[in-house]
Amino acid sequence: MKKLIKILQIFFFILFIFTLLLPYLNEDMATISFTKLDIFVYIFSLKINIFLLILIILLGFQLFFGRIFCSFICPLGNLITFFDGSFKHLRKRKRTKDRRLLYWIPAGVLFIVLAFKILSVHIIGFIDPLSIIHRSFTLTFIPLLNRLFRFEYNPAPYFVITDYILLFIIILSFFGERVWCKYICPLGFLHKLCSLPARYVRVVDKCTSCQKCAQICPTNAISLKDPLKYDKTLCILCYRCMEVCPGDTSFKILKNLKPTSSSRRNFIRSFLTILSGAFFFNFSFKKKNNRNLLRPPGATPESISSHCFRCMECVKICPTSIIQPARLSEGLVNLFTPQIRTDLSYCEYYCNLCGKICPNNAISKLSLKEKQNWKIGIARVDRTLCVVWANGTPCLVCEEHCPVPGKAIKIRKTKKNGRITNAPEVEPDLCIGCGICQNKCPVYGAAIRVYPHQRKNKK
Questions:
Q1: CA neighbor of 155 nearest in space, from 315, 363, 335
Q2: What was the pLDDT predicted at 177?
Q3: pTM for this entry
Q4: pLDDT of 172-216, one tens digit each?
Q5: CA contacts within 13 A on the Cβ side of 423
Q6: How far is CA 73 from CA 35, 77, 78, 253, in A?
Q7: Cα separation of 441 and 437, whole Å?
Q8: 267: pLDDT confidence band, cut at 50, 70 and 90?
Q9: Rounded to whole angstroms, what are the CA distances from 391 to 171, 399, 410, 421, 443?
Q10: 101 Cβ neighbours under 8 A, 6+ residues apart
């Protein structure tokens, strides 16, 4: 069974890498993503799609067999398992004496997430395992691959701070096995609660009290004091206990199984802790957002701060790489959220992929027509830099590239240096702020730039 789990871990990790590279392999399948199997996506957004059905089927199996998601499906869990095995000779094995901490600490983490939700700040993206690994690989792994294979798409530039977050999780492997999964992971905690009714459990027919099973268990599911005491909600089905047991240990499906009193108490306490945070969920007030950032079409400052998972799906799928992660300089609340960088590229007029792939409605799914009418910002001509306005040199590059029907950049006759020339002027009602005018402007630093505006989209 242990070999089967290893094979499944490798398979699902390769599947994760495959879905990560889908936009560069087949554009028609670009919206398929591992992040859409995240429970939090549907808790916070109530979004309904085919991936929700897949997740319900997965949870159905988990209610019967236990934590199969944490066992071999979660890509971050699989990566942690690899480094746990690599570092096992470099650390001293330590066990948590009080297993109640394995419930209380992750429950507290989840409570903090809900508490921040009161402030309309969606921090789950910082600590959600699927967001972390997807963000890290999108901003580091894909750009490195692009240097080798030159994808048709232009991946985001290398983003060092993302590596530090994943590096911190990997370093935890020096201090014990599955430290992140046991003490911090909020998604793992939800799967822990979902596995309470599981009927597929560890059964010991003959115990020699050698404690080998308790010592080798990576999630402390087996008690050191009494190896017969087993918490199925902590078990990730690694089957190590079966391998080391000199007696008779197996995993079986038991029809008449009652939860242990400790499991029941821990579940009730943890559930009440989360419920106390969720009670205030609907009484949230709007926090002031940074309106100086340009957001992708379909997104508003409010939707980004209250729904964004910081998963970088939109960054990965953007064909022109105009969507970039916000840096720490834009504020901690905005860190890793998507912003439009018209100084780097432009928004493709005939593309609406970012709204299609967003797992949590932070970017609304717009039709192509709706997207083409969405105002990202408004362009403005700096007449002190524009060669036409400044010295009368003929140039209408911005007007030529404007994709809006009827042109959002109009030609205005102006007299300069004793002669009449055609000068560009932006029509605010028509401009959608795609940024192609800024991107194509031949003037160093761009004589036309896109600026934020008050949200008021055309219908």
A1: 315
A2: 87
A3: 0.81
A4: 888 888 889 888 898 888 888 888 888 888 888 888 888 888 888
A5: 25
A6: 12, 8, 7, 21
A7: 6
A8: low
A9: 60, 18, 19, 10, 13
A10: 183
Phi, psi of 3 (to 5 degrees): -65, -40
Determine if residue 239 is left, alpha or beta; phi over 0 gives left, psi from -120 to 50 gives alpha, anything else beta.
Answer: left
Q: What is the CA radius of gyration of the chain?
A: 27
| Cα–Cα distance for residue pair 48/284, rounded to 1 Å | 23
Q: Which residues, 6 or more positions from 221, have their beta carbon under 8 angstroms from its beta carbon?
A: 202, 230, 231, 232, 234, 235, 236
The tokens describing 453, both together, are: 């505006």
Quick one: pLDDT band at residue 398, thresholds 50, 70, 90? Answer: very high
b/e per residue 159-197 (b: at least 16 CB within 10 A): beebeeebeebbebbeebbbbbbbbbbbbbbbbbbbbbe
**Is 371 in contact with 355 (CB distance < 8 Å)?**
yes
By residue count, the chain amounts to: 459
Structural domains of the chain sorted by starting position, each given as residue range(s) with its CATH number in brackets: 2-283 (no CATH), 375-459 (3.30.70)
Residue type present at position 22: L
Distance CA 443, CA 386 (A): 7
Structure token pair of residue 233: 């909600």
- Asked if 72 and 236 touch (Cβ cutoff 8 Å), the reply is no
What gap in Å lies between CA 113 and CA 322, rounded to an integer?
30
CA gap 169, 127 in Å, rounded: 10
- 3-state SS track over the chain: CHHHHHHHHHHHHHHHHHHHHHHHHCHHHCCCCHHHHCHHHHHHHCCCCHHHHHHHHHHHHHHHHCCHHHHHHCHHHHHHHHHHHHCCCCCCCCCCCCCCHHHHHHHHHHHHHHHHHHCCCCCHHHHCHHHHHHHHHHHHHHHHHHHHHCCCCCCCCCCHHHHHHHHHHHHHHHCCCCHHHHHCCHHHHHHHHHCCCCCEEEEEEECCCCCHHHHHCCCCCECCCCCCCECCCCCCCCCHHHHHCCCEEEEEECCCCCCCHHHHHHHHHHHHHHHHHHCCHHHCCCCCCCCCCCCCCCCCHHHHHHHCCCCCHHHHHCCCCCEEECCHHHCHHHCCCEEECCCCCCCCCCCCHHHHHCCCCCCCCCCHHHHHCCCCCEEEECCCCCHHHHHCCCCCHHHHHCCCCCCCEEEEEEEECCEEEEEEEECCCCCCCCCHHHHHCCCCCCCEEEECCCCCCCC
